[in-house]
């Protein structure tokens, strides 16, 4: 992996947080090293057991017949939508809530954008008998109501955040404020590979089970490594999870020692991170709005929410309001490791717009019988637009299922002229 | 380590320093100037001026809202520097802001252009709540180059090695966070203050206590506990917010601020009068 002990990825990462949080972050770093990296007290064994029994792992890698035929390439789907809760988020939430328990913390807080991380955290907290409060932007509460109900049903408090535009960025800030007050007995379960070290590497480690399984599965099913892995990217947790065990498959020449033993050069697995192009890649500096969340393609270096990374910001350094039809990608920052891997040329950033994501949503639903999350649909829109860029064998990470998005999709499909055959008239008046 | 002489002179006097905070540009540029000047008339010894950042993670609701008002009225880093230049006050000014604004300022990446400009307009120091000692190297170097102080915040949770790391980097004064949490006025003064002050008792740098101080009586209590200064933000920002909400005249709000400042300063002085004579600072 590309991180160092100081929690830096090239120039990115670090720990830019109020002093009051620093001791908790040091305590967490220590716990991460002991329990996660060194399996102290059998932590990782218990985590894996619970991922299996409670989460339903291992998760299948499925050959997608219709898509493979359509794009004339072997398309494999890593079905994280089948994980308990309907998204990859549980991998991280379960890991962190369990870690909080090992650390002797008594209370869990978390932010959520689309509500997927909030529901996963609420489930994990109920499962492990920990009190839990979730901060969620008002805008997101309105567009992701089913997830709000699920969190409440699991016994979590849901605290609406009304400042700013009321999305993920504001929810993270508010959760950090709670943590600054309650840090002595509370663990903040951050939902993506963002925030101060050790969160980016720890969340990646919990999510890397995705590519650990996928790597074995593709070797078994296709008899080879894929030419590419495609995943959507907001903060980047499913992205890093899907990429982590392929990062070293960079096609580079092997060292002279390896060469002399007769090894072939490494296989090259292209890693493609698909961000939300929103309605446009243009930026309105005056109003501080970027109508997209394409941080890897258009952002530049800065400091937000505890880490140095690529950001959507104006020329003064004020953070922009991002936009995407998918709440889970709607964030002005991105994980520092992803930013670094893009700079290094190891990860290729791409983006697709709202319309393309909606079309892909319908296409996958109709052709493969899988209703994807709108976030996930971005990865499939990329595949649709660039079938020649993914090689002969590709893995697309199905990061989550789309039940939470049905209202949004019906609404957004009605007001657009999409390039898919879909009749929404049956839903008229249903909302 | 560079020490700003003007800031040092404040703490060399034999009385506790009163350090009020306002967000620059709240609720608008001109009114805000009048308010800062009113604080100086009310007895401020140092003034902390907030340069508003869109994601103020260390602030409670009172100052968050002040920052929103200031941003909406068009405050930017460049306007902020003009604001500082135009102010008619005689006390040292310290800028409180978040690291991204410092990092992005000017043509080159890194904190140097911001610090150069800050020194140029006459600021004497910086407080950066999202920059712990671990990440502060480049900013500390720039502050040394241009003669600015870099104030660090000691939290109730700061102990051991972290205290030492901070002690090596801090200058001007140390900001002692009176209790856990975000900024905001409270009705009591926390016992955590005494413990925090005790932990840094042997530091050479003056100790100013902030977070939650609302009344003259709090100020007195904190000075009695051994503080060299008191920092008050939210209780003053509340006055600005009320004024903006009821559309009161700038003069009326300024007068209220001056009166509140006087109450807090008098409280601090009363606290000092009750205490043992303060040891000579070397």
Descriptive overview:
The complex is a heterodimer of chains A (431) and B (282). Chain A has 431 residues and is of the alpha/beta class. In chain A, 40% of the residues lie in helices and 17% in strands. Chain A has two domains: 20-55 and 89-205, Rossmann fold, CATH 3.40.50.1100; 61-85 and 208-255 and 267-419, 3-Layer(aba) Sandwich (Rossmann fold), CATH 3.40.50. Chain B has a single domain (5-274), classed as Aldolase class I (TIM Barrel, Alpha-Beta Barrel). In chain B, helix 7 (137-146) links the parallel strand 4 (125-127) and strand 5 (149-151). Chain B is globular and about 45 Å long. The two termini of chain B are 16 Å apart. The chains are: A alpha/beta (431), B alpha/beta (282). Chains A and B meet through strand 2, helix 1, helix 8 and strand 11 of A and helix 3, helix 5 and strand 6 of B.
In short:
By secondary structure, chain A is an alpha/beta fold.
* Backbone shape of chain A: globular
**What is the helix fraction of residues of chain A, given as a range?**
40-55%
Radius of gyration of chain B: 17 Å
Number of strands of chain B: 9
- The number of domains of chain B: 1
Strand content of chain A is: 15-25%
Order of strands side by side in the largest beta sheet of chain B? 5-4-3-2-1-9-8-7-6
Q: Provide the CATH topology of chain B.
A: TIM Barrel
**Span of the ends, CA to CA of chain A:** 47 Å
CATH class of the largest domain in chain A: Alpha Beta
- Looking at CATH, which topology of the largest domain in chain A would you report? Rossmann fold
Largest sheet geometry of chain B:
9 strands, parallel
Level-2 CATH architecture of the largest domain in chain A: 3-Layer(aba) Sandwich
Structural class of chain A: alpha/beta
| Estimated radius of gyration of chain A | 20 Å
**CATH 4th-level superfamily of chain B:** Aldolase class I
Describe the protein's topology.
The complex is a heterodimer of chains A (431) and B (282).
Chain A lengths: L7 E2 L2 E5 L5 H16 L5 H13 L5 E3 L1 H7 L2 E5 L10 H14 L4 E6 L3 H12 L4 E6 H6 L1 H9 L3 E5 L6 H15 L3 E3 L10 H9 L1 H13 L6 E5 L4 H7 L12 H5 L9 E9 L16 H4 L1 E5 L1 E6 L24 H8 L3 E7 H15 L5 H12 L7 E5 L8 H9 L17
Parallel strand pairs in A: 4-14, 5-6, 5-8, 6-7, 9-10, 9-14, 10-13
Antiparallel strand pairs in A: 1-2, 2-12, 3-4, 11-12
Helix pairs in contact in A: 2-4, 4-5, 4-9, 5-7, 9-11, 10-11, 15-16
Chain B lengths: L4 H8 L4 E7 L5 H13 L5 E4 L10 H12 L4 H10 L6 E4 L2 H6 L7 H9 L4 E3 L9 H10 L2 E3 L1 E2 L5 H10 L4 E4 L14 H8 L7 E4 L5 H9 L4 E4 L1 H12 L4 H25 L8
Parallel strand pairs in B: 1-2, 1-9, 2-3, 3-4, 4-5, 6-7, 7-8, 8-9
Helix pairs in contact in B: 2-12, 3-11, 6-7, 10-12, 11-12
């Amino acid at each position: 992996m590309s991180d160092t002990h100081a929690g830096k990825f090239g120039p990115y990462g670090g720990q830019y947080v109020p002093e009051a949080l620093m001791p908790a972050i040091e305590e967490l770093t220590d716990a991460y090293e002991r329990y996660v990296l060194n399996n102290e007290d059998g932590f990782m064994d218990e985590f894996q057991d619970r991922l299996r029994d409670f989460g339903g792992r291992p998760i299948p890698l499925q050959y997608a017949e219709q898509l493979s035929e359509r794009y004339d390439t072997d398309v494999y789907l890593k079905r994280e939508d089948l994980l308990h809760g309907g998204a990859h988020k549980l991998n991280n939430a379960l890991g962190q809530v369990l870690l909080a328990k090992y650390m002797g913390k008594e209370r869990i807080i978390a932010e959520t954008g689309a509500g997927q991380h909030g529901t996963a955290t609420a489930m994990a907290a109920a499962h492990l008998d920990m009190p839990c409060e979730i901060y969620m932007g008002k805008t997101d509460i309105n567009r992701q109501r089913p997830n709000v109900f699920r969190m409440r049903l699991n016994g979590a408090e849901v605290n609406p955040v009304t400042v700013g535009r009321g999305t993920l960025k504001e929810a993270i800030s508010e959760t950090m404020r709670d943590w600054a007050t309650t840090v002595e007995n509370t663990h903040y379960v951050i939902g993506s590979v963002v925030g101060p070290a050790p969160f980016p590497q720890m969340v990646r480690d919990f999510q890397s089970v995705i590519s650990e399984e996928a790597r074995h599965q593709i070797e078994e099913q296709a008899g080879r490594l894929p030419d590419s892995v495609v995943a959507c990217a907001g903060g980047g947790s499913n992205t890093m999870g899907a990429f982590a065990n392929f990062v070293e498959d960079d096609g580079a020449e092997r060292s002279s020692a390896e060469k002399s033993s007769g090894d072939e050069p490494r296989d090259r697995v292209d890693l493609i991170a698909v961000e939300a192009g929103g309605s446009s890649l243009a930026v309105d500096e005056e109003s501080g709005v970027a109508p997209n969340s394409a941080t890897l393609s258009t952002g530049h270096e800065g400091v937000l929410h505890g880490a140095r990374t690529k950001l959507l910001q104006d020329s003064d350094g004020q953070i922009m309001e991002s936009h995407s039809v998918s709440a889970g990608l709607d964030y002005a920052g991105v994980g520092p490791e992803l930013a670094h891997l893009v700079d290094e040329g190891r990860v290729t950033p791409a983006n697709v717009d709202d319309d393309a994501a909606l079309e892909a949503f319908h296409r996958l639903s109709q052709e493969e019988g899988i209703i994807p999350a709108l976030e996930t649909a971005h990865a499939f829109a990329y595949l649709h637009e660039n079938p020649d860029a993914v090689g002969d064998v590709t893995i697309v990470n199905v990061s989550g299922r789309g039940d939470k998005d049905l209202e949004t999709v019906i609404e957004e499909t009605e007001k657009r002229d999409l390039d898919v055959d879909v009749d929404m008239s049956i839903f008229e008046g249903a909302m | 380590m560079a020490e700003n002489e003007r800031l040092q002179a404040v703490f060399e006097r034999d009385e506790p320093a009163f350090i009020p905070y306002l967000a620059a540009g709240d609720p608008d540029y001109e009114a805000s100037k009048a308010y800062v000047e009113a604080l100086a008339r009310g007895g401020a010894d140092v003034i902390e001026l907030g340069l508003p950042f869109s994601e103020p993670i260390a602030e409670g609701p009172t100052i968050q809202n002040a920052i929103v008002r200031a941003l909406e009225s068009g405050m930017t880093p460049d306007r902020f520097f003009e604001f500082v230049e135009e102010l008619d006050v005689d006390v040292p000014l310290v800028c409180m802001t978040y690291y991204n604004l410092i990092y992005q300022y000017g043509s080159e990446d890194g904190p140097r252009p911001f610090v150069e400009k800050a020194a140029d307009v006459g600021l004497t120091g910086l407080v950066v709540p999202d920059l712990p000692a671990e990440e502060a190297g480049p900013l500390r170097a720039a502050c040394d180059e241009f003669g600015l102080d870099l104030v660090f915040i000691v939290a109730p949770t700061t102990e051991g090695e972290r205290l030492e790391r901070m002690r090596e980097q801090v200058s001007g004064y140390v900001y002692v966070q009176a209790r856990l949490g975000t900024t905001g006025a409270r009705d009591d003064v926390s016992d955590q203050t005494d413990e925090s002050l005790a932990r840094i008792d042997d530091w050479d740098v003056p100790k100013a206590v902030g977070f939650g101080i609302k009344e003259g009586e709090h100020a007195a209590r904190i000075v009695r506990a051994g503080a060299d200064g008191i920092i008050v933000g939210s209780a003053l920002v509340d006055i600005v917010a009320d004024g903006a909400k009821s559309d009161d005249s700038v003069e009326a709000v300024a007068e209220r601020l001056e009166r509140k400042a006087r109450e807090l300063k008098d409280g601090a002085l009363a606290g000092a009068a009750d205490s043992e004579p303060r040891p000579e600072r070397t």
